[in-house]
Structures are given as C-alpha cells and as structure tokens.
Fold each of these.
Amino acid sequence: MSRLRSALEAGEFVVTGEIAPPLGTDLSAMRRAIEILGPVSTALNVTDNQGATLHLSSLAASRVVVDMGFEPIFQQTCRDRNRLALQSDLLAAATLDLKNVLVVTGDDPRGGDHPQAKGVFDLDSTQLLEVVSGMNDGHDMTGRPLKGGCDFFAGAAMFPEAEPWDIQIGRALEKAQAGARFFQTQAIFDFDKLARATQAMHDAGSYVIAGVLLLRSPKVIDFINAKLAGLMIPDDIASRIRDADDPTEAAIQLAIEQVRAARGIADGVHVMPLGLDDAVPRILREAGVVA
Amino acid sequence: MIITRPRDWARIRANLDEIGAKKVFIMGCGECATMSHTGGQPEVLQAKVALEQQGREVTGWSVGDVACHSGGQRLEVRKHHGEIESADAVLVLACGAGVQTMADAVDKPVFPGLESVFLGNVVRHGQFEERCQMCGDCVLDRTAGICPVTTCPKGLLNGPCGGMWMGKCEVLTDRECVHVRIRRRLAEQGRAKTAAPLPPKDYSKKLKPGQLDLRDRALGHEKADTGTGSDS
C-alpha cells in the first residue's frame, strides 16, 4: 500500500516535496534533490512537463525515486496525452511500482517552451480521476477487464484562495467524488481559507496537503506574480521578503511559520522549494514536523 | 460562416515562383470570404495589383456565388475558360474548402490565398467570434448554451482548471473563465443542482472526413450523417 496513504489514514502529518526531472538524461541533479528531500518527506511529487516545458517524463523519473528508496507521487497532466496514452502510462506506472498519482489539467502549451504544440486535453482532470478509479476497480475506461489491476492512491490539485469560492469548492468536491483521496493545494497565504477548504474536503472524505512556497528572493516573487497561472503573492508577504537584509533567510522563516500554521489545520504540507532544496530539512525541523 | 484571414504574401509568392508562374487567374468567394473582407471583389482586385507588382500577368478574375459549391464553381470555371486556360496557376481567395473545389474543377495548379481560421459567429459587421467547433457531440444542453469545447482555451468539458483566478481565464486573462460563466448561468436557471460532471467526449462522432448524403437519411441510413459508420 502507498506509504502516503497509510500515513494519512493513520493521522500522521505528512510532508510532500517536489522533484523536477531534467531537460536531458543527466539525472545527477535530480538525484541530489531526491537525496535531500527524500529523507524528510513522506512522498515526493515528480512533475510532468511542468509549466508546459519539456522535461524527462514523470514516469521514468518517478521510478528513479523508487529505486532510491523513497516514494514518488507520479504526476499526470491531461495536456500531452490522449486517453489511450494516459491509460497506458497508468498501467506502466503500476508495473513500475508507482503507488500515488496526482492528476492535473496541465498548463496551456502556449505558456510553455513549445508554444506551437497541440494541447491534447482529450480528458480533463475529473474524467481522468474517474479512469484511475475504474482501473483500481480492475477495468479500463471502456469497461474491459484488466489482466492484473491497479491500486493507485489518487490525488488532485485545489486552490483554496481562488475566487469565486463556491465554484472552486464545487469543483474540488466533484474531483473527490471522481476518486481524489488527497488534495495538494496551491501555495497558501491565508490560513483561514485553508481551514475552510480542509473542513469541506474532510467532509467529503479526502485529505488536504497545504502548499508552502519558498519565496527565496524578490526575483522569484516577480516571476510568480508575472508567470505562474492564478497565483499572486500578497503585498504584505512580498514586502517581508523584499525589505529583508537577507531575503533567503526571511523566506525560510516565513516558510517555518507557514508549516507551523498548516500543521494545526491541514493533513500535511507540500513544500515547493523553488531551488532552495537545501533549506527544506531545516524548515521542517524548526517547524517541529521532523526530528 | 467560415472566417478567413489573408495569407502571408511571401508564401503565395514562393508558391508561384516555385512553378515559375507568370500568368495567374484569381478566384474569390461571394459568400464567407466576401463577408470576412478577404475574398470579395475589393480583395481580389488588391491581389491583382499585388501580383502585377510582382511582374505577373493576371489573365482574369472572378467572384462566384459560393467557392465551396462544386456545381457553381464548375459553372464559374466555364464562364472564364479562356482566362483560366491561359494562366499558369490559379490563386483562390476563399477558405480551404473553396480552394479544393477549385483544384478539382481545373487542371491547373491551384494555390490558397487565405488562411481558414474558424467557424465564426458574426458579433457585428466585421467582428467574428468562434463559438462552435462542429464536434458532432453537442454538450450545450448541459452547459447552459455556452460551449466549453470551443470557448475554453483548453477545451475542457469540466472546469475551471487550476489557473482560474478571480473568475478570470488563465490563458486569456482578460476574459471571464468559461466554466465560471457556465456554472453561474446554470445556477441562475436553477439547474446547478442536477449538473454532474460531463463524461469524456465521443470523438468517433467527428471522424475525418465528414460526409453527409441526404438521400441516405431519406432511406433511413442515419449513420451516414456522422461520416463515421459508428453512430450509436
């Protein structure tokens, strides 16, 4: 069974990290990141052509995480593959011993490094979650039985701070209904909104892992505000980093506070280090999450 | 109607140069391309000037009723038989359907003079918007008359996606998210409660190439309507 699942079901506060596969075949930097984040994480998300930019596949990179003794969360976007390829890769993931899958829509190709690419979106994230649920029940999306089934712990993304909230929560509940057992959130800055989202998802029987973003420099803040879909850093948070003598240290202190705050509300934290991987173990230690 | 935009003249010039075309006949379209201001009489005459400035002779031109109508196009070709016969190539200022109709009607090399871009609603004169992609599997009954297949940049049936922010679209940031609009309108009409996620789309309803023969329908062979043979 998925370690992430058993930890969540046991009521443990989980930590998920994020691993970006390389553009190329040199795995050394990715392995270093896994070595740093693996020991302090319950599971590691392995992104799938993140930001619609070309990288080594999540499938192959997730297996590297397994081989190094850690547990990956295989990410699947709906952007790059049709329903045949998505199901085929899910079967491949099961045979590669990948137990968690995070299903997301995927950024539009026109914002990525291959803007001429055709966005596939044959299925959307809700529909793909249904497919994963069906595979867990032993059949493909046409109903044909699988020779050897799957037992994925499926998750989805949600954004507790995006308005309109009624639509946002309605959408998350549909994903839960379709089989999302855990939700990883976009970066949280308003913890009252995290509490509201967590309550709603707990009522639907799903877990919530709160996103914490390491805003290591004013440049990173500018990049996020300009480039990352649907994410805005609040002014008070941004100025705390901008006005600091040591922005990196200020970002680390902020993250420690956010992990502590999330601990009282959600079922875990999803740390997005944005290159500051080395700081993650310290953040988790000082927040009292790991020994 | 089919919305077209002018094709890059460098590409047209390269097409004609490639076969050494000195003499060109120009065919426009009296329907969609006239409405789009891309293949009506004024645009055909502009193309004539452009070709002449390139040192080519325009043997003649015509704007028939509808460029994609095989019978009508053959009639137009007969009317201009001599002008077309003396040309090295035909330049068609119509959609891709019109270009192919012309290519079937004459023995000469036929080149596209426009780019076909979408099936457009006329918002007002000279302003068009894409609202339908002719998918053959309409969901407008479930989406309050707003097509997510066409008007969501990702074509998602269920949304919003994770990029929606304050009700706005992630890709076209000045627009309201289509899925927010759909959910709002369903709620206003008291239909939100019964709205369930839409199932995956049946792309076999729209296999290429589409084909329809009304005689088949009269004979009860409905499946010919889809051009797929797999209607259920």
Amino acid sequence: MSILINKNTRLIVQGITGREGIFHTSQMLGYGTQVVAGVTPGKGGEWVLDGKVPVFDTVHRAVDITGANASAIFVPARFASDAILEAADAGVPLIVCITEGIPIQDMMRLRRYLDQQEVRLVGPNSPGLLTPSECKVGIIPGNIAEPGSIGVVSRSGTLTYEVLYALKMEGIGVSTCVGIGGDPINGTSFIDVLGMFEADPHTEKVVIIGEIGGRDEELAAEYISDMMTKQIVAFIAGRTAPPGKRMGHAGAIVEGGTGLAVDKINSLEAVGAAVAEHPGKIPELLK
Amino acid sequence: MKLHEYQSKQLFSKYGVPIPRGRIALTAHEAKSIAQELGGRVVIKAQVLVGGRGKAGGIRLAHTPEEAEEAATQVLGMRINGLPVRKVLVDEAAEIRSEIYLGVTNDRAFFSPVMMASAEGGVDIEEVARTHPDKIVRVCIDPLLGLHEHQARFLAVAIELGRDHWREFIGIACGLYQAFITSDATLAEINPLVITGDNRLLALDGKMVLDDNALFRHSDLAEMRDMDEEEAIEREARRFGLSYVKLDGTIGCMVNGAGLAMATMDVIKLFGGEPANFLDIGGGAGADKVAAALQLILKDPNVKVVMFNIFGGITRCDEVAKGILTALDQIETDLPMVARLVGTNEEEGRRILAAADMVTATSLADAAEKAVAFSEKG
C-alpha cells in the first residue's frame, strides 16, 4: 500500500517533448509507471519514445482520451503556473510540479484558486513521488529505494535520495516517498502528507526531512502532537546556514529570526520525534 | 534582489506615495549642488544594501550646502558592514512629529501577502516583533482580490492614527501594495512613514526586495541590480548558474542539490570542522559547470581542503569527475581533496578520479570525517 500514487496511476507528462521531459518520461516508463500521454502545445498527434506515448495539444484532450488521473509538469518556469492551472481545469486530481523557479506571487494566486478545486498539487520545485516497485512520478532515481513500511516526506531533492539510499543500505523499505518541494509556497505541506501516512495502514513509521525557512516543520510538530500515533524520525538541514542568505532553495532562508533549524529541531523533539544528527543516523533511529 | 532606498522610494512615488524631494549624488560636489537646489536643511544618506546605516554614521543632517558637501565627503569614504559607500541620497530634511511603520511581505503560512503597520516606526521592526509583537498589526490580503480600503482603515484605526490622516494613509497603503504586486516584490516597506511638522504623511525611508524568479518579466527592474553590492565571488557564481554562499571556514564543499549541500555543511560542523561555503551545482551539471565551481572554491584563500559530495540522479558522476579533472588541469593546487560519488555512473566517475590524487569516501559521514582531518593538519 501507498499514498497518492500506485500501480493504477495513469500519468500524463506536461512538457514531454522538452529535454528533461523526454528523459524522465523514459525513466518513469522504465520503472513501470503507466505514462499514458504527453502534452506539448503544437505537437499534438506526434508519438514519442518509439511510439510508446502519444502527445496531445491540451491536457483536456489527453485526459478525455486516456483517462489520466495524474500529471507531472516539466515545463519551463515561466509557463509552469499556466500548466498547473490547465491540469486543474482539466480535472486532473493529482498534479506534481517538478519545475523550479515559479514567481512567488503566481504561486499565491494559484494556491488560493486550487484550494477551491478538488485537486492536489505537489510542488513546485519537487523531485516528485516514488512508491517503490509500483510507480514513480518525477525524477527520484528508482533504484535507491525498496518497498516497505516507512513513509518519507521531504522539502529537498538530493538530500531525500541520500536518506532513501541510507535506508536501503540497512534493508529498510519505503511505502511512499513524497517530495513537497523547496519553494516558500507550495501545494502540499508536511501536515497534508503526515495525515495521509497516518491513514495508510501499510505505513508504520514516518521520516520527515525538513530544512531552514518558514514554519512548516513547527506546524508539523503541532500536528504530530495532536493527530499522529505513528513514530516520527526527522532530519533538519541547515543548522550551519547563516541568517539572511538564501541557501539554494527559494524557501530556505532564515529571516528576522524565524526559520532557524534549532527551533524546528526543538519543536519536533518536544513532541517525541527523534531528530537525527545526520542523514546516516536515520536508519538506526527507525529500529 | 534588494533595491536601494532611492530606487524603492522612486517606485513607491510612481504609485502615489509621497516622498521627500531629493536626488542621488556620486560625489560630495554633486551633493552640495543638490542641497543648493533643494534649499534649506538636507539629509545625506548612504546607499548601501546592508542594515545598520544609521548606527554606523551613514545618515547625516546638514543645514547648509557647505555642510552637505562636508557630510557627503565623510559618508562617501565610509565602509558600512564591509561595503564601501559609492553613492548618497540627498533628501530634503523633514520635521518629524511621529513615526509609523508600514510594510507588505508574503506570509508563507497563509499563502498570501500580509500588510503590517505599527505606531512604533523608525526602529528595527524585527526588534519590535520580538519584544512587543502586540505593537504590530497585520491584515492578510487575498491575492486574488487585492488590498481593500477597509483593510487599510483597519490598520489606521489599530495604530491609533488621527482621523484627519486616514484618507492619506489609505492612499499610501494602496500605493505601497500596488508597488509590491506590480514589481513582484517579496518585501516593500516604508520605515518610517512620518507625520511632518505641517501635518502631512511622508515616506522618509523605503526598502524593497524583489523576487529573483520573477525578474524575467521586469527587465526595467532587473537593470537596477547594483553589481558593486555583491561579493564578487557570488556574482561569478550566478553567472555560471551556481548557487554559492561564502562562509568563514576552511573546508570548501561542492554538492549537487541545496538540501544536500546544507546537510553536508552541517555534517562537517558535526565532525568538528568549519565549512568554507555553501555551493549547489544544481541538477544535471556538466563538466564545464563543475570546473567553474571548483575554481570558485579554490579562489577562497581560507580553503585548506575540498570535499565533493555528489549524489547522482540527473547529475552523472562521470561528468562531475571529468569536470574536476578539467579544473585541476587549469589550476595549480596542492590542496587535499576528498570525493564521495554515489548514484548514476558512480563507478565510471570513481575510475576517472583515480587518475587524480584524491581520497575517496563511501558515505557522507566518512567524507566529512576525512575532510575534517585534513583541515586540522593545516
């Protein structure tokens, strides 16, 4: 079992004919994901990857014809908010935005609109989702995780891979891994994913990978205290980050004394989560 | 991207926010002639993109054009928090009855802009937020509806502004919000917004931070970037699409991915070392970019050892290895290096690196431990 994606997920890829889109589509197909269609305006009617995947001009048409129920977005930043809205308007219930660099004000308007629709946006600036051995949506390397009972949720990309790899090395499997993305405003928060893991009978424990900036980890701690029965192990990146400097991710910045790693660590420890000193320590804290 | 005070105030003024008469001067002589034009008292204000100008003596009052010249001479020779002052704003001095704070920023928790006001203006608002959070009032603004008059009025009433100023205040609040939205800002702030001796509201100081991700649709604003105000090395990094932040330690690190780069710094510190930088080469970096990144690291004279932590996904370990060798061909260095490459094409990467004299590591902790050992040897 898993959350959000599984072997029945029928995926479309927006921006499928771009360099990243086509490469990762082939990776996802190779993993076993059902990529049922791609969308690139102006290229409708073509087929890509040796005729395996049809391309449509609009998401509406792709959904009508293929019955897709999820979309992965690989279009460049300046077109990405339009792509998200297109998927939402076509009724795609799960939208995963890999694109990084969407202006924050676009995201605020978008989030306000999406909250009134029956859709879930994961990202932007997300590495995607992985349900090992069933389905991968996005760019997480498939070979670094085995199926199992640990839920993983993260604001980061490669740091998530580091953690998945550390779990695999210790023979610990994963139910689903969700990358919520490193932007200051995104579609899905830690709390949303924690709720899904709590409800998923096959997830036994949850790993949270947070970082400096914002208060998402603090809110997660409140939620853990109020709602979670499952064990939580966490890692927070950025203890050594200087204030006022953006550390790569648009959302990773300590501003006006808020967003500090130490506050996040203290909040999580206060509600009984085990916080790892470094990613390599996570497996032993799960035992 | 931060804007200078004079740039911010000019933008605010475009949206109807009253600002003092004044202009920018690059020399003391210019400052004198601007003071002459304005007549009467002026304020000479250092234009640097760091806080603490006032405390450092970067803001001076002058009663005559000669005093203005004298003050500008002093301020233009200063360094404030390490940054040289290259220009000053010469503003007409205002008589101040009281000082208000007014600002707009993004509230991450509510996914919306938030406007904040306080009767305690003129001081560090973050300090007020820490010590007297009740003295700051906020309204969340629906990003689809924008700021409404009743919200601005709510702020005016909450900070106990006199009724005779409400109309002006609402106009200023709406102007500031327009400036914030149309410039794709992440912060727009007037501190202080003063009530003058002749009972008008006037934006004495202004600050704006723009969203770098939105600059593609604001070429006019992008041109305002002050190249003098960035660390040369961070500017160089941006040119190559690298994300680099200079730190004070001795262990240079090159990592793919922001979260992993932060975690790498943290692990170095955990093992008793000090990172010299944050450096994210991003996803899918080719050999050229890797070489540029290594050159950047080696430009820092404090660096005693270089640590590579690459988790291959889109980024291929063999490409990174090639980049490292390319850079080492171009630069003379005998600094020790520790490499940890995992993921896509890791074996090929390790084989390429075997040609260089490099210590390899299996895990992040292992790499950090080895790098720290080298840094301690000196």
Amino acid sequence: MVSERTLMLIHYLTGLGILVAGAVHIGTVFLTAPVKENLEFAGSPFAVMGVYRNAILAGSLEALLLFVAFHAFNGLRVILIELYQSPRWEHAVTWALTVVALLVVIYGTRTIIIAYSIAQGVA
Amino acid sequence: MAGRRNGLAVLVEALRTWLVPYRYGLERWSYTLQRISGVVITLYFVAHIVETGYVVGGPSVWTIRPDAQQYAERVWTETIKFLSNPLFDAGLAIIGFFVAFHTINGIRLFLAHFGWGLGRPTRPEPMHRPQSMSPTQRALFWASIAFAVFALVYTTNAFFGVLA
C-alpha cells in the first residue's frame, strides 16, 4: 500500500499540475476566440478538431485527465474515510475508487487517442 | 459517548459537521466550500468524460471507425444542440464558480501547509484566535471568493450570451 504521506504529496503535485494543464484547457476554450467559435467541430485553430490536431494541446489534455482523475478520486477518498472510520471501510473505499479512477482514465484516454487520430485527417 | 453507534448515525453527524459551517469562523467555511466544490467538480469531470466519450462512439467503440470523422461531427453537433439550454448554461456557470474557488483556496491551503503566511503560535488562552487564519490567509480566502464571483459572472456572460 502507498502511504498516506505519499498520496497527499501526489495530491498536492497533481493540484499544481492541474493549475498549469487546466489553465491551458480553459484558456484555449475561453480566451483564444469567442466560445461559440471554439465549440464548433472544426474550422478554426482552437475549435475541437483544431485543438486535437495540435499534439501539444492534445497531450496537455491527457495530462489534465491523469491529474484530475487522481486529484478528484483521492479527494473523494479523503472525504469518505473522514466521514466514517474503520480499516475495512478504508480498504473498500480505496480499492473501489482506484478501480473507478482507472476506468475513467482508460475511457478518457481512448477518447483522446481517437479524437487525435480523427483530427489529423480533418482539413 | 458510551456504546457503539451505528454507521448511519456516524455518517449523519459527520455530514452535518462539514455541511453546516456556521459559528466556527472563516476556516470552517473554507473547509466546507472546498469539499462541496471538489465533489461538484468531480461529478462534472466524470460527466465530461462520458459526454466526450460518446462523441467518438460511446463505450462499445475502441477502434477508429471508417466514418469516424462524420460520426464525431454529427454527435458533437447534436450534443452541443442538446446542451444549449439555460439549465446547462447555469450549471456551467456554477462549475466556473466552484473551479475558481477551489483553485485559489487550494493555493491558500498549499501555502498554509508549508507555513507561508501563518501567524506566530500563541498560548491557547480562552477566546484566542487561531493563527492559521492570519490576515494573509484571510486575504487569500477572500481572494478565492472574489475570483469565484468573477468566474461566475464571466461564464454566465460567455454562455448565456452565446449558447442560449
């Protein structure tokens, strides 16, 4: 088992990571052009396909997915083991949330890989 | 407390403790808001992954289909059309509020964890104010509220002006 100290260290580091990758994500959607333009499928550099065609932006979305998945589910774990204390409960919560977090990461990664592949072929 | 209490009673009491922040000062408000915002953002995060997953084919598709581009464009356009209503606009504005708050308050907690901006330890005499909420830390808490309100206004303008 990973110690609580290590988990909280990763929690803080992923928080800092989200600060960067989240700023890039929110910045590309809100600050590069009017939101309506960026929410179109294609046609401008920061529309959906434009973002995924750019390997750096697509990579930062994958990083954001990993950071948020850890940070969110570790945060939920902290809340749940604070609500009620018992070794069995803590064990169950930790494993259940690890499985859910992994499923979210795998599913999200698949979306990013397919979107990246599609975007390479979009004019 | 004598005797063993059942799980539900413990849960109700614990929930009441972190959902009712009155009478315990600014730090308790920060604690409650940080948790509520965290849970709400987590729900949004999972919904966002599910929603974007459907654009490339949903849970059953793990390869790149021959018509992937047309399919994705069609589902994306349908999804945007489905989400373009005041209910989702308001939801996103609230997410904006919570994300902004969680970010700045998270930075405050990060700094507090490393002892930055904390007051000097004092003798814990009755009615003493906790040094963990120094003027610097208080200012950072209010900065997180201010940034959250800004984000609420910004996203409301961006979405209601555009999507609806």
Amino acid sequence: MKKKVLATLLTAAMLATTLAGCGGGAAPENEGGGVEAPSAEEGEAPAAEGGEATAADEGGEASADDAAAEEEIPTATFGDPNGTHMEMWTFVELHGQHYGNMVEKWNEENPDRTIEITCTTYPYADMHTKLLTSLNAGTGAPDICDVEIGQFPNVVAGLDTWLVPQNDTAAPYLDTMVQARMDVYKGSDGNYYGIPYHVGATVMYYNVAAMAEAMGISNDDVIAKIDAVTTWDDYAALGQEYLDAVATDGKYWTSVDTAGCDWQWIAMAEYGEDWTGGMDGTANVQLDSVKKMCTMEQEWVNSGLAEVSPDGHVDLEAGFQNILDHNIVSFPKAMWYMSRFTNYMPEEKGNWYIAKCPVFEAGQKCSVGIGGTGTVVTQQAVDKDLASEFLCWAKMSEEGEQLIWDNLGFDVCNTVLWNDDAFAHDDNNQYNQFFINYPYDVLYSIKDDIGTVYTTAISPTINEQMCNVTLNDILENGVSVDEALQAAQDVVDLEQ
Amino acid sequence: MNKFKKFFYSQKAAPYVFVLPFILSFLLFWIYPLCSTITMSFQDITPTGTEWIGAKNFAKLLKDTVFHTAIKNSFQYMILTLVLLIPFPMFFAVLMDSRLVKAKGFWKACLYVPALTSVVISGTLFRLMFSEYPTGQMNVITAALGLGTFKWLKMKATGLGALLLVACWRWTGVNMLYFISGLKAIDTAMYEAADIDGATAWQKFRYVTIPLLKPTTVYVLTISVYAGLAMFMESYMLWAGPDSPNNIGLTIVGYLYKRGITKNQLGYGSAVGIVLLVIALAINIVQLILNGTLKKEEN
C-alpha cells in the first residue's frame, strides 16, 4: 500500500524532473533576461532610447525592457537585397535604425559593394547572454553587435578568437577621435575591438525654471548663480539656498545613487584616480576620491540636502517621475541623458540648463566619460573586412557622427565637430531646442577636462559590489564609509 | 513480422524497451551534464582556452562572502517554505476531502491556477505591488492602515516576506493536490473503525490521517527541500535581475547564473552548482533516513 503510493509519486517525480530539466534550461534565456535593469554606470542601456514601449506609470525598476520582453522581438532589414547580407544585434532599437540609415548611404556611395543588414533588437540582458553563448559555441553570432560597456570585458575576453581587431579600419578616423574612448574598448592584446558612439561626458543638469520660481528671481539670475559654482561646497551652498527658499517637505537639491557609481566616477576623474588600477593594475576601491565623495553624499542625505534616488538611480521610470515632480532640481549625469528628457520628460522643455560639474579643488578635471556602447565585428561575420569597414564608417565618419547627434543625441567622439557651428549650433536639432543653452558649448568648454576611468575585467565585480551592497550600506543603512569600502575591497580582492 | 512480435511479447525484452526512453533521456540530459559539470568545476574556462586548476574554484567558494550570503538566503527561504508549504496545504487538503466545504472544484481551481501562471508575469506584478512608491499596492494598504510606507524590496525582512508570499501563492495549490491524492488512498474503513472507537475529529486526524499520509508528506518534503534550495525565478523576477540591494534576494542558483552565464565563468559556476547538489543530496538523504523511507518495508 505504502509502497504503491510511493512508487506512483516517484514516477510522477521522474516525469516532472525530466520536464523541469527541459524547461529550466531554457528559462533564463527566453524569459529571464528581459527584465534586468542594468545599473546607471552601465551607461545608455537602461531605458532604451527607442523607449516608446515604456509605461510611465510603472512603479518598480521595470524599464522599457519589460515591455520589450512581452512583445515580439523587433527586426528590421535595410539596404540592398542583392548585397552582402549581415546580421546585427542591438539592445536599443534606435541604434539599429542608425545602421539602417547608414547602410542606405553606404550603398549609394559604394554601388559595387552593397550591403543588406538585418537589425534585431533584444532586451538588454538577453542580447548579451545570447552573444556570449553564441561566441562560446562558435556558431550563431551576428556579424556586427552592440556591446554595452559594462558587459564589454566579458566579450573582449575572447580577443581575436571571438572578435575582429579594428586597428586598420579605424586608423583613418583616429586623429579626430577622443583617444580615451577608443582605449576603453581595447583588448588586453592592445587591439581595438569596439567602436564607440559617444564620449558620455558627465555634466550637471539644473532645473532653472523650478529654481527661479522657488527663489523668486529671474532665470538669468539663477544661471548666473549656477555659473558661479566651482566647487562641491559652492554647489551645496547653492542647494541650501534653494531648499531654504522652497521650504517644502519632499523637495531636495539632488538625489544620490545606490544602484549606480556615477558620483564616484566623477570624484575619481577629479583626482585623476581609477579604482580599476587601469588595464594592468590592481583594483583598489579605497581611494581618497571615493571616500571623499561617499562621505559627502552621506552628509547630504543626513542633512536633507539630498535624497536617495528612488529605485537606485535617476535613469529609471522612478527617476524620471522624480524629476518631473521637481522633487530634485539638479543632478550630474552623462550627456547621453539628454535623450531621456526628450523621450520621457518632454514637458520639461526650456526648463533645464547644462553646466559643468563642480570639483573638490579648483583646477581639477570636472568630467568623466561614463557609459557607452562599443560595437564589435565577430569572427563569425560573413565578410569581416566589409563589416569592419562599414562599421567604422557608420560610427566615426562625419556623416555617421551627424546622424548620431541628430537622432541619438550623443556627444560624439569626433572632437573637430564640437565647435563646428553648423554641427553644434543647428537650431533644428531637438536637443539644441530642448535645453536653455547649447549642449556642445558646454562640451567644448570642458574638452581638456574629461577624465577616464577604465572598464576592465574587474569592473563588473566592483560595479556589482558597489551597487548591490556598498552604496546601500553607506546611504541607506548608515554604515561608515571606511567600513563599507573595506568590505567592498575584500570582495574585490577575492577576484584578483 | 513474427520476429518483432516475438520480441515485443518477450517478457525479458519488453521491460527494457518500455524504460528505454527514460533511460536515454536520463543519460543524455542528466548524467552527461552532471559529469561534465563535475569536470568543469575543476577547470578555469576562458574564451581562449581551458585549464585544469584542481580544487581552486572550491577553495575560492570557501572565501566568497557573496556566495555565503546566497547559501544563507537559500537556506532561510527553504526552511520557511517548509514551515509554510507543508502544514497549510495539508490542512486545505483535509478540508477539501471533508464534507465541510462546498464547491470544492472551484476552490481547488483557485488554489491551483497560480501554478499555471507565468512566473515572468506574476513576478512583474508582484514587483509592482511591492514597489517602494507610495502608489505601490502594498504601500497603499499599509498607508491606509496608518503604518506608513516601506521600501519593501530594499529590506531583508520584507524582501524575504515578498519572496515567501510569491512562493505560497504559487505552490500551495500544487502541494494541496499531492496531499489530496494521498488522502484518497487512505481506506475509509480506518475512519469508520475510529468512529466506532469514539475518536474525535482531531484524534482521527492525528492518529489516522497523519501517519497514513506519511509517504506523501515525505515526498512533498523531499521536493520542497530541493525546490527551496534551487529557487531562482521568483527572486530574479522580483528584483528584475540577479542583483538586489545588499544581496537580500540572492540565491544559490541566482549566484550560479550570475557567475556562469552573466560573467561567463563557467568553471566557477559549475563549482557553485556542485555545492548546491551536494547540499541538497545531503539534506535529503539524512531526512529520508530519519523518516525511515530508506528502510526495508516491514510486513
């Protein structure tokens, strides 16, 4: 009797586990990946630029990725059906559109070497998982693929067994490009593997209209005050002035991040430090610059000058809503955040002013390149030379840079264009229209002050520890900065 | 033709033919991956080559505090699911089997439907419910009760509570069905005999139902131990990825996914998997011995 029941149940178990085995293996790739919201430091990934799919009223960390997971995977084919066919993967639909536009131009200019390209947009985590799996397997990878900078170390680990070096094809454009942005996509063998879209220079965004209203002064007076800010002390003082004027609960000068390391990156750039230790160095998160920034953030949270960003950082629905509600009126972010304004906060048009970030000590660098997407050509490409040549042209030529600025709103890496009047002061450009000042004027003014923090093999570990544990401990749980950074260092040391 | 007939009717061959599909799938999808996971756990696998590194992966696991957090979380979750997901489904099953409940089919369906719902969808809904926003469902409820709002998914206790809620919502109906099938196998004569002896309802439950349900309970316990330790999807969905504040939602399988898939460290990920297997096997073997399931049945 007892045996019979047990036998029946065991049979059921065998059947169930067999089925579960099939289901379980596929689950993370097919279902899971769609909902990962990458942290702020990972650049332009979170709320995909093509984000018409985003539900603005979603409360959680859900971003455009969620909606994308439940919809069909968007695929678009561009170019000449008789040309060389290429597959391209991205996690931002607009990026695919960019290659679509560029392939049409390429075909006009190169009628003997035409291309047809199929761009597929996968959710962020899904795409990177698929790419790694197909590169590992040696089959199934696309010809050209976008790789987000936070994920880049995992992909570039394959060096030239996985990816095609771009040294020769990139060479014609190198003298006008920001060298630091080329360097972040280098492999450990010194070859260039990824081609950048943008610098991602950090700047300070200020809501001039809200400040003027609260402080009872004109926009110009507010701008004069902002322009007078040099150091973080000046910045905090201006914030206090604003808070005294607005005197309302729930209003803050800025918000500090627990799920992104932008603030720490800025501090490192200002002191010329880098917690990864560079390409061949040893990682150290207990840097003076990091300590100073964390201590300052903790003080601000305690004094009520700053709040902790809802859901962890400003590049999520929660962050957009917070900005729209004018709960915060200033924050530092990379220049690619401009597209978040036009996409998710169009009603803020004409309110915001872009300025350089404050520094700890006068004379320091005031910006750092954050985030980014390096596009790679895989060794599985049908025509590696053609794919490489097209990629470099599409992302680094003047035609390519023009479209990147107009459509994607990025601070392009071609420095010659930064003070080109026709390019930088084009009043038809939606970003020039949106902000009070010309974004490229700010960029040009800080062109020698943009520091570099490398993204190396240890970066994902540091980023993960900081965003999951350390910054939460410091800003939410009141753990001392030294203690929290020591714990982070212990975790990082285990990996090196 | 005759040969085939002979073969299939042969009492010696037929059993093997019948179990062949299972044996094949078992070898292909279980034994082969298991062996290769064991091999890989002793290797450092990089895109450019594979290297034998002995027990270094395991030595590293001993020092890896994030992994220790994952184990602690998985254990807490497993124990609490055992506490919640055995007594309550058993109680519901007894209710369903009694004459006290009307419209049994309806209630059974209600409890079972969550198991059929996609975890992706339910996880997303639960995430929105537990949002730290004042407009999140749970915050609306707590605010209405005058308790204020909470950052549900940022704190250990509430985060674990949310996970348990998802687990209970999802698995109560399934476990209840197991218990119902166990109850059906109990001979009603036992209850009649107890009635004649003047047993109360509680005594019947305590001295007839519980002992006779033991095989089912042991089975549910065994799969729950494994399911608790291997939980991944619920946490992945609730925190929109394998990362959670202070790693409060990190589980052993979540860590395996993070290392093996996201970071492409297949060797280290395999070592995590082996540790999970060893833990789950150890607990279950001890538990089965203590329950007497592995003993020879007495006649």
